[in-house]
Amino acid sequence: LVSAGMGMAPMTMAPLAAWLVSGHDWRTSMQIVALVVGAIMIPVSFLVRRPPALAHAVAVPAGESAPQGEMSLGEALRSPQFMILLATNFFCCATHSGPIIHTVSYAVSCGIPLIAAVTIYSIEGFAGMGGRIAFGLLGDRFGAKRVLVTGLLLQAFGALGYVFAQQLATFYAVGAVFGFIYAGTMPLYAVLVRENFPLRMMGTVIGGTAMAGSLGMATGPLAGGLIYDAFSSYAWLYIASWAMGLGAFLMAMNFRPFAKPQGEAAAAAA
Question: What pTM did the predictor assign?
Answer without folding.
Answer: 0.79
